[in-house]
Each structure stands twice: as structure tokens, then as C-alpha cells.
Amino acid sequence: MELVVDVTSDDNAGGNGSCYRPDNSSLHLEIPGDVAYGDCPMRIRWLFVFMVTFGTVHTASAQVADIAGVLPGDRWVYETTDEISGDLKLTTTVFVLDVSEQEINTRVSTRGLGVRQIVFDRNWNRIDDSVWKYRPSDGAGIKKPLQVGKEWRFESKATHFQNGTALTITGESKVVGEEKVTTGAGTFDTFKIETRMRQVNSNDQTKASTINAVLWYAPSVNRWVRRIYKTQIEGRLRDSNTEELADYSRKP
After folding, report:
1. Which of 7, 151, 162, 206 is the most buried (most CB within 10 A)?
2. What would the pLDDT profile of 99-138 be if each residue is shown by its tens digit?
3. Could you say which DSSP state residue 22 is in?
């Protein structure tokens, strides 16, 4: 099935950060996230796909998935905090436009940064985010069915739509445990997944970034409820962010 999401975010950092401009960049430094815009700060791009959703607080179990799965009209709202400064950076809304057997088509909106379409596979790996095209996907999502101890590796290629920059992406993920997580949207039983990813410019091997991420995926809401990620460029820390589910609503 295919899933389409719409994400909207608020930049509460006061516009103090420098902006990431994909048209002029030679390295894609983005964590698996939904807030990725051609002219937004890189730290914003790592805010992984976030869904602005209006709903009630829910308590979920990691062992009990939503049988209906992801549906058009589902929304998630995420708040992203800069772990270095402690500032709330963004509020992002992800809205599902359409779902097919292989993909989830979404619209992601970030207040003050614009709106764009992002297409994921059924495991929330990016395929196309209107800036980069991934083959087969970026590998930043999950791999069902989830169970403690499960590990997987991924490798992909990414091409920038406008300037043709090519990246090679490699990484590995592991389900390290089950944890109960409380956010502004409620309390959820989740699978904790750790991911390490490396992105290298195909034309210049010296241009590389490393991303270390941890996400807590709640089957009851068909998405993660918390995600932490750190980005290093050429060995130097660039960003450290935490993204949490603030609200969500599901298609009746």
C-alpha cells in the first residue's frame, strides 16, 4: 500500500539557525524525518516525518497494532527540541493523503517553511521527499514485523532533483527492547529501535555525515512517538534533536 503524509511545523527558534539549501548542497545531512525542506535548517530536516494531529490522549500497547493500518486522513503532530540549546525548534504536522499497497503518500507542512509532498514505503522509509529521490528508500524507517533482537542492514542511493548530487547511504538498525513512553499525546508501549547511518557524496568521498538515531515506535498509532538523532559531519557534531508526538488523530 502507498501512504501520503502532510506535515506542518512551527519554527520557534526565532529564525536564528542557518538554513539548509539543497540547491547548493553537496551532502544530504538529514535524519529519517518528515520536516525536510529545501530552505529550512538542517536540524529541522532531521525532525523525521512529524504529524500535526488533533486528537485525544491514548494509551497503547506495543504488542497490539492498529488492525486498520495507516489510512488517508490520519495525522500526527510532532514537536522537535534542540538538545544542544534546549529550545523548541519546530512543530510539524504530517497528513496522509493516500495509501497504496506499497507506499504512503503524505503532505508535510512546516509553518513558515512551506509545504511539500513526501512519499514513504509501508515501513516509513522515504522514497521521494520532493528534494531527494531514494532507490529503493532512505532506510530510516522500521522493518515489520518488529520483535526484540531483530536486526537489519540497508543500503541505498539518493539523487538530488535539482542539482543532481548523488549520495550513497548505508546503515544498520536493531530493535533493542520494549519500553513504555509518555509524551504530550499520551502513554504508549513501544519498540525501541537504534539506527546508525552514514551518507557519503558519491563524487567526493571526503564529504560524509554520520547519523545516530533512536526511535520508539508505537504500533497502536502506526508511527514513532519519540525519536532522538545526532548528526556529525566529518566527525564534528552538527545537530542533536529530540522529536516527540504531541497530538494525533486517526481516520474513523
Report:
1. 7
2. 999 999 999 998 778 899 999 999 999 999 999 999 999 9
3. G
